[in-house]
Amino acid sequence: MKILVAPLDWGLGHATRTIPVIRNFLRQGATVDLAVSGREAALYQSEFPELEQINISGYNIRYPERGFEMPFWLFKNYRHIRRVIRAEHQIAENLKRERGYDILFSDNRFGFWAAGAKNIYMTHQLRIAFPQAFSAFEKIGVEWHQSQMKKFDEIWVPDYAEFPGLAGKLSHVEYADENFAKKIRYIGPQSRFSKENADKFTSENAQKKFRFLALLSGPEPMRTAFENALLRAFSKIAGQHAIIRGLPGEKNLPQTSSHITLFNHLETADFANAVKNAKWVISRPGYSTVMDMVNLSAKCIFVPTPGQTEQVYLGNSLQQAGFAKLLTQHEISAVSLLNTARKLETRKK
C-alpha cells in the first residue's frame, strides 16, 4: 500500500499532528511519502529521515500585522487561496498517475485529492469559527467546508466523538446529509507525545529547570511579534526561561539575556523534556499544540493569534474548562505573566 501525506503549511501544527498518523501507517507496513512545502520539510526530516519528500506548492500565508484586519485579509487573499487549491489538486492528480498511490492523506489541504485513490481528509474544524460580529454566518461556513470535504472518501477528526471533546463546537457538527455524515470518523486527539510514553519524561514533582517556557508557531509577522513581546517580558522576570522558536532548519539565534535560552527547534523527545521541565508553558492555542499540551500535562497560558477566531474560541473554552489561562497578545508583560501563572496554581484538576 502506497500512501502520500500532505499537510497544510499554515504553521507547523498540521504537520506535527500527522506524525502519529504516519507512524501508524508505517506500523501497518505501508510505504509512505511526504508532500511538503516550507518548514515542514525540516520537521519531517528530523522525524522520518528515511521517508521520501516531494516538494509541492504552498499557500505561503503571511498574516496581517493587526488582528482586526483578518476578515479583510481573507477576502483580499481569497483568489490566491483558490489558485493554490486548484494547483495542489493538479499536483495530486499527477502524483497519483505517476506514482500509483493507493491513498492520498490531506491535512486541511482542500485540493489534495485524486480520482482513483482513496482520499482521506483530516481536520478538527468541521465548523469554521467566525468573529463574534459575524457569527450568524457560521452556518454558511459549515456548508462551504462541507462542499469542499465532499470530494474526499473519509473525514478524520482528531478529537473525541462525544461533545465537547477538546475542540468543542469546532469539531462537532450535525449534518442533514446522512451520506456525508457517514464519512466522519472521530479518531481521538493526535499528538506526537503519546500518553503511554509521557511517564519516561521528568515527573510532575521534579525540580523545574525553566520558570516559563514559550512555544512559538504560526505564520509571520505574528510569530516574530509574539517572540519579541515574550523576550521583553522574560527579561524582567527572575529565573531561567526558554523559548522554542518554531523554526526548524534555521541555524542562527538572536542575542538575548543570559537567563533566557533560545532553541530554533527541538526534536520530539527533547521538546517533551523541555515542557515537562517547565513550571509554566506559554503558547498559541492552536489545536495541535492543545493536543500536545494535554498529553504532556502542561500548565498553560494561551495567547491566541490576534484575529484568529479559532484560537480565540479554543482559548476561551479551555479556560472555562479549567485547563488553562488566557491572555491577549497586547496584554503580555512581566506583571501579567506572573499574575496569570499564579492563577494557574488554583485551576480545576
Task: Give the strand order, joined by hyphens, for the main sheet.
Answer: 3-2-1-4-5-6-7
Q: Mean pLDDT across all residues, rounded?
A: 89
CA radius of gyration: 20 Å
CATH topology of the largest domain, which one? Rossmann fold
Q: Report the uncertain regions.
A: 202-206
H/E element order: EHHEHEHEEHEHEHEHEEHEHEHEH
The fraction of residues assigned to DSSP E strands is 15-25%
Distance between the termini: 44 Å
Helix content class: 25-40%
Task: State the name of the first-level CATH class of the largest domain.
Answer: Alpha Beta
Shape: globular
Total helical segments: 12
The structural class is alpha/beta
What is the tally of beta strands? 13
- In total, how many domains does the architecture comprise? 2
Largest sheet: 7 strands, parallel
CATH architectural name of the largest domain: 3-Layer(aba) Sandwich
